[in-house]
Structures
1.
Amino acid sequence: MKQLHKKLDAFWEEKIQEHCRSKCSKGGHFLDFLISFTASTTPEAERLSLDDIKGALMDLFAAGTDTTSVAVEWAMSEVLNNKDVLKKAQEELEQVVSNTSMVQESHLHRLKYLQAIVKESLRLHPPSPLLGAREALESCEIGGYMIPKGTRLIVNEWCLGRDESVWERPTDFLPERFLQTQMDVRGQNFELIPFGGGRCICMGLPLALCNVQLSLANLLHCFDWQLPTHQALDMLDKFAGITLPKATPLLVMPTPRLPKEFYSREFTQGELI
Ligand code: HEM
């Protein structure tokens, strides 16, 4: 841990210095905002040290990297295991985006079925299944349970998403369940809180949703996919400390669907990625 800490500390130091030296830093970058709080003109109580900035960057990268890739991998796996879902998603993409363009952020609000796929995948596979731990500052009562002051409280979002008193056919992957409802993942519907809720809700939520939807949309729009065997994918998970990735990584064969100029390299038939 000590060795890794030194390595990581040097990495952040270099990135911050590199950013300060870079001519493209014109004040609009998040890092510029943080650095502006190191100035001696900032009131002492609000002033940030270099270590504070490194800590903030560390938090963002730790909280935002694995969670996002785990979410995309699960959604891809569910779609590939459910061929009718794949077909509907690709039809929607063809209608909204057309085959002469990649998916842009501006298309996302019209991709209702794709949004439903992402919600349904987050329901079954919340990347951060125990959210963030809470501690009761005061004794209180929740749902008839007495919670004494100082109690550590851990929310099992994985179970909430599969609760049969809330969800019909809870273990089936059915994006359609979200088409006729306003239910969302933004912390207002307590049946579905993969980003948590309240004051500690994930601060990267808008970025995360956009990244997951956009990555998944482009994977489905730009390629046809085949599994290496005719068997259904292994959907077992394996807890990795904070996140819950697949126990066996997804391996699939892509075939390009768009004109050649959209790809930076060629894909050979049967290539596994
Ligand atoms: C699909 C992707 C993501 C998922 C599922 C996710 C989920 C979560 C969850 C469950 C929490 C705890 C919320 C709570 O306890 O109520 C959290 C906190 C947090 N997330 Fe995310 N997150 C994702 C992506 C991101 C990204 C992209 C960033 C930033 C770039 C980010 C930054 C954070 C931070 C800083 C916190 C701590 C917030 C606090 O304690 O005040 N997350 N996230």
2.
Amino acid sequence: MDRSEVPAVTSSENESGASRRQFVRRVVAAGGATALAACLDGQGRDALDAPPGSDPETLPDRQHAWNQTLPTDSDGTVGRASHHVFLRLALTSAPNRTDRERVEAALRSVERALEWGPDGVLFTLGYTPAYFNRYEQSIDAVDLPDPDPITAITAESRIDVDDGDAMLHLASEDPAVVLAVEEALFGENDSLNGHDVGETLAPVFERTNRRTGFVGSGLPADRQTGLDGVPEGEPVPEEAPFFMGFRSGFRKSQATEDRVTIRSGPFAGGTTQHFESIELNLDIWFDDNDHEQRVARMFSPEHAAEEAVGTVGERLGAATGATDVTDDIHDHAREHGTVGHAQKLAQAREDGEPVLLRRDVNTTEGDAAGLQFLSLQRRMSEFTAAREAMLGERFHQYGLGPRQPNGILQYIRVRSWGSYLIPPRGSRALPRPSQ
Ligand code: HEM
């Protein structure tokens, strides 16, 4: 992994307010010992002061059981931890028993050192179809085909498909925590939050790609200046948690953790994960559309006409009302020349209930505004059906191609794509297909 391309961080940037938040983004994006030291205001790695962990045996069986630890608003919408690191991992050799023990011991060290939750750390370790392909036996019990990008624009040839072995997703409210955990897991620090770290992942895995993300009201607005694809005039509203300017992940448009959990077979208690990195073209999103048009494209023309959304989604409660306008979608395409993203995606529900649990976050990778889109679902086919609904090919008949107001297709470019099995905690260390 090459850290030479990341911007250097200097302590003079380590000030207060917005510049402090920009500084934090840069250090999390940079990673490494210098970034961690800078994040801890130069007080040294031992200055990390996070709530201590617990006995790993007491943690939930599901690696993806994050919701009960996350804050919930008055509508029951679950919040997200602010800082994220996504590490693609490749095995250094064929996995054996010692490697399994090492991986498990390393992850347990983190759990003992830090509280399982946003004030400490949340993480999942997932495995690609390519990882399982090394075994003779297939993972029939899990719906996890090889990753095959679904995109609207065929010119998206730069999609980097994950053909490595695994992905580690780290999340915390504290940027220093995600950096410190990464350091400890890869042998760059033998202590974490005052606890000794014994085994590490370093002999087993190498990091082949490192992506970062952040989410929260005010953060995209703080970070919009000077990014590629963001027009002048700071168009991202101050309160928006995401770069396109709207809230997302309302309680009633998210699947529950139960709904995304695999029910039977060797990986019962696990889930599947889709992860894609998207670059946003906010130049045209903000310059070519007024607020009403943005609401129509993101939600539906009816949401726009009724001013149902507000500036960033504050008029919506627990639900977006997208299911109320799914039956009108062809009329909207014909009469308004627009269909909404949420309106299209609500068609992928099952019996009116969402099947995807989205945990997407913003990114400024490559100094461009983007989204790290992550969703959990019981079966990858449920993700595929939703992503195909997003393509909206059935609206081509109304002249709504991928460069027309067919949801938000026009403003996004897919840059990377991967699929993973997130096993239950008990089999997260280099699982075999049959366990
Ligand atoms: C830049 C990219 C994207 C942005 C800014 C975005 C934003 C949003 C927003 C604002 C909503 C409505 C609020 C909510 O229900 O949470 C929504 C709904 C949704 N989006 Fe996206 N989204 C993006 C990409 C994707 C992708 C790649 C998928 C993959 C399938 C997806 C799947 C969904 C689903 C399933 C819903 C809920 C629909 C329902 O109500 O059942 N989104 N999105």
